[in-house]
Design a protein that fits this description.
Helices cover 49% and strands 9% of the residues. It is α/β, with parallel strands linked by helices. The longest helix has 33 residues.
């Protein structure tokens, strides 16, 4: 009996070791860089497994909407200047420590000779080669996944590609299009073909840069800056004290913020994780990541209804394009005579609000709360787990794909839609937690409560530029007609083409 008991204890011990090693993954700082996370790294984060729906065989995709953030980019000119200034600050900190006779034994050797990797650069913010690669391969994967949708000969009215008037967004659109249409033309060894990328003026682009035209949002964001800083301050102060004690340098909170920014840039853009990132413990990285996620929640996400409701023109356009695809299906339009995909490339300020508009990353009763315009609780602080993470919500090249399906058979609903977030099916709280939702339910439960608000009213269009207002008024009038049933499909189609 004693022998059996010993064997049992040994087996239990071995099981626990095996279970522990499989459950606890090694900490990878590259997965904790908030919205500076690379796309390939983000796709490897497996925290909230979701069993996707089995799409019936009698269902086939008839239209696709893509809303994507640009790929990995270089730091902006302002942030590069901040890093150059930090180089001088670091020299001053080291000199001061020497004069005080502080023990610098734990100080990493790289700090003594550190220079900004972007020193001397006069331009910034551009899409870098890794970002081009992300978007190029995303285009290839989407084409392969939805081969029937992308089987037609390219025409800009069949596959519409739009980008904001910011170079990294339009460059992302070009990279994506090169992947999407590779082998479809006669240009060069890659058999590429030319394609059009459309952009609206930054002053009037309420589709992809609605935050630029929204005066009320700009005022809200400016007003929130002190409040956000106050929420982050205790974490930054605590980490600053820890850094100072650990390395013997009189770091300030501003230094901590700069080091965290440097960590994100080095790890994401340069694959360097043992310099700036190595100054922080894993717990400190998790807390710094949380402060970024908290700020994103407050000024871009569910922290305020205006953050996402100002994106109603984009949601309107998505549904209009699907309505047009249904009309084409119902009336038997010939292939190549109607739009099959709308592909949009913009920014985190576009992707995050749009994700909120369609109710992603919500848990339990939170969907009902936002419908009642009740504020949600802030993302929980580590070590508590949270769904709202910038590294998965809006990494570089992050995207939402909304696929409209036509289903034959005796179903009451003929048209369904599925949402893919970063190419993975994701549940929609407004559709009962499923990723495969009847199109009419999506319109009624998710879209309609937002679309009863006009962009003009939300953003105080009376003081905006005329082109913003006229465009908004026109698209709001079209969409109001669809939901009231007063406009026929022919009128809607012609108005959409005019817009």
């Amino acid at each position: 009996m004693a022998m059996v008991a010993k064997i049992g204890l040994i087996l239990l011990f071995l099981y626990r070791i095996q279970f522990s090693s499989s459950a606890e993954q090694p900490f990878d700082v590259r997965q904790h860089l908030a919205t500076v996370t690379r796309y390939g790294v983000s796709k490897d984060i497996k925290e909230n497994p979701f069993v996707s729906s089995n799409i019936p065989d009698q269902c086939s995709p008839i239209h696709l909407n893509l809303v994507a953030r640009h790929g990995t980019r270089a730091p902006t000119k302002k942030r590069m200047k901040d890093l150059e200034n930090f180089s001088a600050q670091l020299k001053s900190l080291l000199k001061n420590a020497k004069e005080r006779g502080a023990s610098l034994e734990k100080l990493p050797s790289w700090l003594w000779e550190w220079r900004s990797p972007w020193k001397g650069k006069t331009k910034g913010g551009e899409l870098i080669s890794q970002g081009e690669d992300e978007m190029y391969n995303l285009g290839i994967r989407i084409r392969e996944r939805f081969q029937d949708l992308f089987s037609d000969e390219y025409h800009h009215d069949v596959y519409q590609i739009r980008a904001s008037q910011i170079p990294r967004a339009s460059a992302s659109a070009v990279s994506f299009g090169m992947g999407m249409f590779s082998g479809r033309g006669e240009l060069g060894v890659g058999k590429h073909r030319a394609f059009a990328v459309l952009s609206e003026s930054r002053a009037s682009d309420i589709m992809l840069r609605f935050h630029d035209c929204c005066k009320n949002y700009k005022a809200y964001r400016k007003q929130q800056e002190p409040a956000v800083h106050k929420l982050k301050e205790p974490v930054l102060e605590e980490i600053t004290h820890s850094l100072a004690a650990r390395y013997g340098l009189n770091f300030t909170m501003k230094d901590t913020t700069t080091l965290w920014f440097l960590c994100k840039q080095e790890a994401s853009l340069l694959d360097i994780t043992d310099q700036a990132c190595g100054l922080f413990t894993n717990d400190e990285v998790s807390l710094l990541e949380w402060t970024d996620d908290l700020e994103m929640f407050i000024v871009k996400g569910y922290g305020n209804a205006l953050n996402y409701r100002m994106g109603v023109p984009l949601l309107q356009d998505v549904i209009l394009s699907m309505e047009h695809a249904i009309k084409a299906k119902e009336e038997g339009y010939a292939p190549g005579s109607y739009e099959k995909a709308t592909l949009r490339f913009a920014h985190a300020e576009t992707l995050v609000p749009f994700s909120c508009l369609i109710g992603l990353f919500l848990e339990g009763s939170e969907f009902e709360q936002i419908q009642r315009e009740e504020p949600l609780k802030y993302p929980p602080k580590p070590p508590e787990k949270r769904t709202w993470r910038g590294s998965t919500v809006a990494p570089f090249a992050g995207n939402n794909v909304l696929v409209l399906y036509s289903c034959s058979g005796n179903n009451t609903n003929k048209y369904f839609m599925q949402v893919l977030h970063n190419e993975q099916p994701i549940p929609m709280a407004g559709c009962g937690g499923t990723d495969f939702c009847p199109f009419e339910v999506f319109k009624e439960k998710i879209a309609a409560p937002h679309l009863k608000h006009s962009y003009d009213d939300l953003c105080n269009a009376k003081v905006q530029e005329p082109e913003c207002k006229s465009y908004t008024s026109k698209i709001t009038e079209i969409f109001g007609s669809i939901f009231s049933g007063k406009t026929n499909n022919d009128e809607t189609s012609s108005q959409k083409e005019e817009l």
